[in-house]
Amino acid sequence: MPLINQNYTIMGTLEIFDKLKNIENVSLLEKIRSLLKSVDSSEIYQLKQCEIDVLKKSEEDLKYGRVISQENLE
């Protein structure tokens, strides 16, 4: 998992676990498991400042409900 800072990583991990435990689609869970097995955990990707800014902005958009459904995008 990319490391932005220690607090972000811990909170991000907890949010991921919360979402994963609520998934009922077995096929999706198997695909996630397969993806995670294929990841090289020894490689850490260092985010650029502009990437960090985009992530922070997207979290803010989610927090305040500034989202568009997939149906509205099509």
Number of helical segments with 4 or more residues: 4
- The SSE string, one letter per element, is HHHH
Q: Give me the secondary-structure category.
A: mainly alpha
Shape: extended
> Quick one: biggest sheet?
none
Estimate what percentage of residues fall within beta strands: under 5%
Number of E-state strands: 0
Unreliable stretches covering 5 or more consecutive residues: 1-6
Provide a concise account of the structure shown.
The protein is mainly alpha-helical. The chain has helices at 6-21, 26-38, 49-63, 70-73.
Q: Could you explain how this protein is built, in words?
A:
The protein has 74 residues and is an all-alpha fold. 65% of the residues lie in helices and 0% in strands. The chain has helices at residues 6-21, 26-38, 49-63, 70-73. The termini are far apart.
Structural descriptors:
74 residues, mainly alpha, 4 helices, 0% strand, disordered N terminus
List the helices and strands and how they pair.
Layout: H1 6-21, H2 26-38, H3 49-63, H4 70-73
